[in-house]
Amino acid sequence: MAILEATLGALPVPAYANDLDGFITWQNAASLALAGDRRGTHYTQAVPPEELKRSKETWAAVTLTGATRHRTGVFWRADGEPIYLEVIAAPLRSDGDVVGVFGLTIPIDDVRSDPPNVQLSRRQLDVLRLLVQAKSTNQIAEELHLAPDTVRNYIAGLLKALGARNRLEAALIALRNGLVSLDLD
Fold first, then answer.
1. Which sign does the torsion angle of CA 139, 145, 150, 156 carry?
2. Closest by alpha carbon to 72, among 61, 57, 84?
3. Sign of torsion, CA 174 176 179 185?
4. CA–CA separation, 124 vs 114, rounded Å?
5. Sequence-separated (6 or more) residues with CB below 8 Å from residue 70
6. CA 169 from centroid of its chain's CA atoms
7. Start-to-end C-alpha separation, the chain
8. pTM of the entire structure?
9. What count of Cα atoms within 13 Å lies in the side-chain half-sphere of residue 173?
10. In percent, how much of the chain has pLDDT > 90?
11. pLDDT tens digits along 37-86
12. What is the spatial distance between Cα 75 and Cα 72, in angstroms, rounded to a whole number?
């Protein structure tokens, strides 16, 4: 266990663990630097009021179903300022039972950035949602009943509209600006 804690503690991204009641039990150095020492406090204290509902839904999905969840949202930094984070929350298990939550957070630059001024069609948003889920061109084509060349054209148009250089950057821009959600329900 000490080796695992030393390894996780050295991660360059903020990591934390919560008990099943939602209280923060462990933070690595990067988490302490970003959010301050929140050990012993409930995770909801790191979340602005407008984000509480989504945070509680994510918490319930992880603790009740044992599913790993990804979401983006605003959280409080140690200095009280908001920060936009990508959060990956996974169940901690003991003998097959969920006993807590392990999380990694990836800060997304500039919480105050304005979303790109783009108007996407319903079909472009459909393609973008699947792109964010890391679906291949062929998987998107199959799911939307389109030809792969048509999907490639949609993706090329999305890259241009979002000012992205590649699919990953388009997905990050879309998530950062709330065009789509990463919650995979």
1. negative
2. 84
3. positive
4. 20
5. 86, 87, 88, 89, 182, 183, 184
6. 15
7. 33
8. 0.59
9. 19
10. 49
11. 999 999 999 998 888 998 999 999 999 999 888 888 889 888 988 888 88
12. 10
Extract the tokens encoding 169. 């950057």
Query: H/E element holding 61?
Result: helix 52-65
Contact 48, 55 (CB under 8 A): no
Q: Which two tokens stand for residue 108?
A: 């997304």
| Strands, E assignment, the chain | 15-19, 24-27, 69-76, 82-94, 97-108
Tokens 């998530």, located at residue: 175
Amino acid identity at 24: I
Task: Mark residue 183 as left, alpha or beta (left: phi above 0; alpha: psi -120 to 50; beta: remaining).
Answer: beta
Task: Identify the burial level of 35 via C-beta atoms within 10 angstroms of its C-beta, where 0-12 means exposed, 13-18 middle and 19 or more buried.
Answer: buried
Pick the closest to residue 167 from 146, 152, 145 (CA basis).
152
Domains of the chain, first to last: 2-108 (3.30.450.20), 122-176 (1.10.10.10)
Residue type, 177: N
Cβ neighbours of residue 38 closer than 8 Å, sequence gap 6 or more = 16, 24, 27, 45, 46
Q: Is 117 helix (H, G, I), strand (E, B) or coil?
A: coil
pLDDT in tens, 87-130: 889 999 999 999 999 998 988 764 334 445 778 899 999 999 99
The number of beta carbons lying within 10 Å of the beta carbon of residue 185 is 7
